Amino acid sequence: MKHRLFRALAVAVLACTGLIASGCAAQEPTDPEPISPLTFPEVRKIQNDQLEEFAALIPAEQIVDRWGPIEATAGMSCDTDLGGRKPYFQEETGTRMLTGGMDLYLSDSADVPAILEQFAASKSGLDWIVAPADGTNDAQADLVLESPDGFSYYVRFYPNTVDGKNNISFTSFGPCVIPPKDFNPHGEY
């Protein structure tokens, strides 16, 4: 009886140890994000043209003010210590992305849920990834749109901001690209 109990206990301990150890084992690295062949000027143009396409989906009389699209930003590193291709302190050898954005201030009569649905529908069936416009996506944005060529657009609605305006805010991220040879980490592109 003691041997059976001891044997069962030993098997249970070994099984638990195996399960715990497998969770602590080194994970295989995931495939890195592909490097886009685009240049910084091409990324900025595509990014801002898409933002303008989104703005064009809203009737002009419903846009009472706007800011952007952003003309230039610093090239952010794609190589972080959180899973990028290079160690953080060697980022000058890695890839960069450009961020962008635009804010559209809407009249009180604007139907924001319909506008968000229109943004999503404009990319439906075009190999874009469209996250639900219900606030449950990973970014907690009202809508996330990702193009097949690596561009991401996060759309958030802020009702009745400090200025008393209804704001649809776009934050965009370009794909990871090889920076130009004269790249300055503090420059704007």
**H and E order:** HHEEEHEEEE
Sheet-strand content, in percent, reads 15-25%
Shape: globular
Largest sheet descriptor: 7 strands, antiparallel
Our measurement of the CA-to-CA distance between the termini, rounded to an integer number of angstroms, reads 76 Å
Q: Runs with pLDDT <50, length 5+?
A: 2-30, 81-90
The helix-and-strand class reads alpha+beta
Number of helices: 3
Q: Which percent range fits the helix content? A: 25-40%
Number of extended strands: 7
Radius of gyration: 24 Å
Number of domains: 1
Mean pLDDT: 80
Protein name: Lipoprotein
Keywords: Signal
Signal peptide: 1-26
Organism: Leucobacter chromiiresistens
What does the model show?
This protein is an alpha+beta fold and 189 residues long. It is built from 3 helices and 7 strands; from the N terminus they run H-H-E-E-E-H-E-E-E-E. A hairpin with a 7-residue loop joins strand 6 (152-158) and strand 7 (166-173). The longest helix is centred in the first third of the chain and has 23 residues, at 2-24. The termini are far apart. This is Lipoprotein.
Which features would summarize this protein structure in a list?
189 residues; alpha+beta; 7-stranded antiparallel β-sheet; 3 helices; 28% helix; 22% strand; globular; disordered N terminus
Summarize, please:
Residues 1-26 form the signal peptide. The protein has 189 residues and is of the alpha+beta class.
Write the layout of secondary structure elements.
Layout: H1 2-24, H2 40-56, E1 63-67, E2 75-77, E3 96-106, H3 112-123, E4 129-131, E5 143-146, E6 152-158, E7 166-173
Antiparallel strand pairs: 1-3, 2-3, 3-7, 4-5, 5-6, 6-7
